[in-house]
Amino acid sequence: MSQWILWAVAGAVALYVIFLFNKLIRLRQLVNEAWSGIDVQLKRRSDLIPNLVNAVKGYASHERELLQRVTELRGAAMSLPAGDVEGRAKAENALAMALGKLVVIAEAYPDLKASGNFLELQRDLKAVEDELQLSRRYYNGAVRNLNTEVEQVPSNVVAAIFRFTPRDYFQLSDAKEAAVPQVSL
């Protein structure tokens, strides 16, 4: 009789470990999916940058240093591996700040502001920035859920056995970087 009890307890523990393992897998996949959403939005923004730079370049050629800086930051951001969340966040935040400066400079040129192409690029950039903000929230929520399971008892034991680790948040490292590039229409 006691042997049956031991087998029942062992079976219950095994089922619980399987349940926790599957939950951790599901949470990890949600984090991966969320990162993919951020990656898509970052790619969309990177694809807009050459057109935006070219539009501004025609009107504000003396702003060459800023235009070159935006181009360099875009290249740096695109060259980072997708899994480097902290590095990617820093690079993308620097790029966002430079884009904000570019848009502010563009505001000083009435002909550029009236350009249909530039206005369309501004609208597209604003839409991408809005989507990026939503994607960051979703990603950080998914990371929070995974990290909670990885760190709380008893799932932390299963996480340690199967080498689940906490993930990094996609966050701003400086309060000044929190300012989203202002795009006026």
Give the quaternary arrangement of the chains: single chain
Taken in chain order, the helices and strands follow as HHHHHH
Task: Kindly report the name of the CATH homologous superfamily.
Answer: LemA-like domain
Determine the structural class based on helices, strands and strand pairing. mainly alpha
Q: Which percent band covers the strand fraction?
A: under 5%
Summarize the amount of helix as a percent range: over 70%
- In terms of per-residue confidence, which ranges show pLDDT below 50 for 5 or more consecutive residues? none
**Total tally of structural domains:** 1
Can you tell me the CATH topology?
de novo design (two linked rop proteins)
**Radius of gyration, whole Å:** 23 Å
How far do the termini sit from each other? Answer: 78 Å
Present the secondary structure layout:
Layout: H1 2-59, H2 64-79, H3 85-107, H4 110-114, H5 116-151, H6 155-161
Task: Describe the model.
It is a single chain. The chain is an all-alpha fold. The chain has one domain (2-178): de novo design (two linked rop proteins) (Up-down Bundle), CATH 1.20.1440.20. Helices cover 78% and strands 0% of the residues. The protein contains six helices and no strands. It is rod-shaped. The mean pLDDT is 87.
